[in-house]
Structure formats: structure tokens, C-alpha cells
Write a structure and sequence with these properties.
Layout: H1 3-71, H2 78-95, H3 108-117, H4 123-136, H5 140-144, H6 148-155, H7 161-179, H8 187-190, H9 198-208, H10 218-226, H11 235-243, H12 251-264, H13 292-296, H14 315-319
Helix pairs in contact: 3-9, 6-7, 10-12
Length: 331
């Protein structure tokens, strides 16, 4: 008579246990759904963060563009550009009245060799190196038959000395075999010489032969784009665009003025805007330091050198207070 209630209670617990199974399954399903939802929102959050970054970058770009537009010549006409460009050149001519090629040379052969050697090094280092080279090999005929190892040892301080040795010996052989040992005075002949491109050719033509040419080196390219004389990046196109702004007779001196200014004031990373004599004419004013005192501290010349950098600079440069560069032993 007493066992009946126990049986009834046992069956009730089983029923309750059976009833909790669907609840556990439902809870597990809910957890899985939450996990899936969180996983799904991950990319959304990532995309949102990326969008925020893109928006911030766009705002920064817009601010930069606005700042640039504020200093740009407003709708400058071709005539106005010519006038501004020529005025900049006149101003630079007053600042650097003694501007000259910063390589020592006594003849066209020495100039073409020195210019080839100046790649990836300073003019000062070349000037400290070439006296020994030209003392031992004074003519193309001498350098054409030189022992490469001996030449390499002399040129070692200029860097890339093996490639430069190959170039100067090669161009010397070409001068002897094709031009009777004389440096040609034509662009089309010069660029055929080993190691000689248009830039080197124009340096030689303008400074050894008195034939106008524009030297488009890294300084020249940087400055004419900052001044918005041209938007071109190809050296040949820059040469053509800038050449159209000036009479041919100005081309060689213009190259000196621009290159000197690029080496001394309008640097690549930190232009000394506050100490720049042509600041009122420059649409890029403000890219560098504008505080006059801080800007003056940025004024410099090529690393390790004095203004002029030649061992034997022109008399006009010395009269203006310039100093000759030290010999290699003192550098």
C-alpha cells in the first residue's frame, strides 16, 4: 500500500527531466546564434573602422589641397608664368652672382670625366679625387690604356668606383677611336660616350664650349616643380618646358642658379622658406620652415663642403668672400 506513491514520484521526476531537454537544446541554439551574430558583426566593425580611417585620410588630403591652393598662383596665364620664372632667375642671379659649375676642370676632357664621376657623390669629393687621376692620366690616350685596378684605387673615394672606372676608361677609348682624342662639341655625339647622358652632355656643352644647355639634375627637377614652372617629371620634358620660358642664352646660367639654390636653401626635406630670397614668388612657400631664425639654421651646402666647393674656384667667387674647398688629405 505504501509503494504506490513512490512510483508516482519517480515517474514525475522522469517527466520533469524529459521536459528540460528541449530547454537545454534551445539554450544551446541561442548561444550558437549569439556567437554567429558576433562573428558576423566582426567584418562590419572592421569595415566601419576602415571607413573611419579613409574618411580621416580624405579630410587630411583635402586640408593639404586647400593649403596648397591658397598659396598657388591663381589661374596663372602663360605670360604671367614666363614673367614670374624670369623674375625668379633674376633674383637668384643677384643672390649667386658667382654661380658656376662646382667641378674643377682645365679642359673639356677633364670636365666630362669629372661630371661622370660626380654621380652619387658630392662635387667636393670629385674635386678632391681628380687631381691624382689627371696627374697620372692627363689625356684620353693615357686613360684609354690605363690599368683598371689602378684607376679603381684612385676613384675609390667617389663610390661605385668599379662602374665609374669602366665608364671613364670606356669614354676615353671612344674619344680616341671615334673623335681623334678630342671631346666632341655636339649633343648627339656626346651622349654616345659611355656614362654620358643628356645632363652630363649639357654640362660639358654649356661650360666647356659655351653652348647653351639646361642641366636637369635632381635639384633642378625638384625646384622647377615646386615653383610650378612645369608639372612634368620626365627630365627631357622638364628640359623642354623650362627651356620654353627662357631665351637660350640664359639656359646655362639658369641651371647654375637653380642648382645652387637647391643645394643651399630649397632642400628636398626641409626647405628654409623663412630664409629664401624668392619666397614672395614661390607657390610652395610654407612647405618648409617659415620662421626666419629657425630657417637660417637649415642653410647648408653639400655635406662636408664649403660654398663653391672647387679647389680652384673662379676669382669672382673668391672676391665675394667664398672659400676654396680643402684638398683630400684635409677633408
Amino acid at each position: 500500500m505504501k509503494k504506490a506513491p513512490v512510483k508516482k514520484a519517480t515517474s514525475g521526476r522522469a517527466a520533469a527531466k524529459k521536459a528540460t531537454v528541449p530547454v537545454k537544446k534551445a539554450a544551446a541554439s541561442a548561444k550558437k546564434a549569439v556567437a554567429s551574430a558576433e562573428k558576423a558583426t566582426g567584418p562590419v566593425r572592421k569595415a566601419t573602422a576602415t571607413a573611419k580611417k579613409a574618411t580621416a585620410a580624405a579630410k587630411k588630403t583635402a586640408a593639404t589641397a586647400k593649403k596648397t591652393a591658397a598659396t598657388a598662383p591663381g589661374n596663372e596665364s602663360p605670360t604671367a608664368l614666363v614673367r614670374r620664372a624670369r623674375r625668379i632667375n633674376r633674383e637668384l642671379a643677384e643672390v649667386y652672382p658667382y654661380a658656376h659649375p662646382e667641378l674643377d676642370f682645365e679642359n673639356s676632357f677633364q670636365l666630362v670625366v669629372a661630371t661622370v664621376l660626380s654621380a652619387q657623390t658630392t662635387d667636393l669629393r670629385v674635386n678632391q679625387t681628380t687631381p691624382a687621376l689627371f696627374a697620372k692620366y692627363p689625356t684620353p690616350e693615357d686613360l684609354a690604356v690605363a690599368d683598371p685596378e689602378e684607376v679603381e684605387e684612385i676613384l675609390r673615394p667617389t663610390g661605385f668606383f668599379r662602374a665609374k672606372t669602366k665608364s671613364v676608361i670606356g669614354l676615353s677609348k671612344a674619344l680616341v677611336e671615334q673623335f681623334g682624342g678630342e671631346v666632341p662639341g655636339r649633343l648627339e655625339d656626346l651622349v654616345k660616350l659611355p656614362g654620358v647622358g643628356r645632363k652630363t652632355a649639357f654640362v660639358v656643352l654649356g661650360n666647356a664650349f659655351g653652348r647653351p644647355g639646361i642641366t636637369v639634375d635632381t635639384h633642378f627637377q625638384r625646384l622647377v616643380r615646386r615653383w610650378r614652372w612645369t608639372g612634368e617629371s620626365d627630365p627631357d620634358k622638364i628640359e623642354a618646358a623650362v627651356g620654353a620660358l627662357f631665351p637660350r642664352s640664359d639656359w646655362t646660367d639658369l641651371s647654375h642658379h637653380v642648382i645652387w639654390h637647391g643645394r643651399r636653401i630649397c632642400h628636398a626635406r626641409k626647405p628654409a622658406c623663412g630664409a629664401c630670397p624668392i619666397a614672395p614668388l614661390c607657390p610652395a612657400y610654407g612647405e618648409g620652415e617659415t620662421d626666419p631664425e629657425k630657417a637660417r639654421k637649415l642653410l647648408k651646402y653639400e655635406k662636408g663642403g664649403f660654398p663653391g666647393q672647387r679647389l680652384n674656384p673662379p676669382r669672382s667667387y673668391l672676391d665675394a668672400g667664398g672659400k676654396a674647398a680643402p684638398p683630400l688629405a684635409a677633408g
